[in-house]
Specification:
Elements lengths: L1 H14 L6 H36 L9 H9 L9 H34 L2 H16 L2 H12 L3 H25 L3 H9 L4 H39 L6 H10 L3 H30 L8
Amino acid sequence: MSTTTATTATTAANDSPPVANPAAKSGTRSIRIWGPPTLVFVGLIAGWYALAIYLASIGRTTLLPIPHRIIIDSFFPTDAGAPITDQLLRGLLLSTTVALAGLAISIVIGIGWAVLMVQAKWVERSLFPYAVVLQCVPILALVPLIGITLGYSLESRILVCVLISLFPMVSNTLFGLQAVEKSQRELFQLQHASRWTVLTKLQFPNAMPAIFAGMRISAGLAVVGSIVGDFFFRRGQPGLGILINNYASRNQTPELYATIIVAALLGVVIFLVFGWIGKLAVGRWYESSS
């Protein structure tokens, strides 16, 4: 009897599924997440090299420089020119300050605007069209007007960022606040919950994924706003937009590409930071369908 029991236990142990290695599972997940974009990046760099070499062969070297020449000519020039490191760092600091300030203002105004509209349908019908108008007005037409009326100070650049990045915060927050299940809303009504309780205990927790999605979108647009404001104002302390304009006017192609790449990386970094903050704030209770 004991032999049979031991044999059965041994067979069950052999038939049980192997325990997954946490390290292997984590490595597989990292490859699945970072593998595809890494391959695409390698493909883009390879295509860039191929196109740059082809253009150089037909005498169009200034149109698209070779990637490593951008780094060498911008940061480690072999001629008498000075590296653009200091200019680029100062411009990056200013553009980051403008973008983050404009984004913070957009977040506060956007959430407040959406909270106000969700209180009653007539309020939404009264205010939401102006958010749409703000989104539809060409910002490039407003930038000269802002410069003429408010000057070319840092505050004017921040205002441009706010105008560009505000609408995603308003629309996403409003959608999240309104996307509460009817049964949950009725449950709060049965408990005679106040409007404040419904807002803070039901609507805001439900809207958090949408709010942080709006923050990520607005973060990228805020960087665009900081570049656009610099590019058109062309006065004051130079940000990345002013540097782009200066390098383009002087035909400094490697420096121009280096500044554009830094501006793009700034937008990506801010986007990823707010995505990480959103993941921490929302937690594991919300998972996308992907």
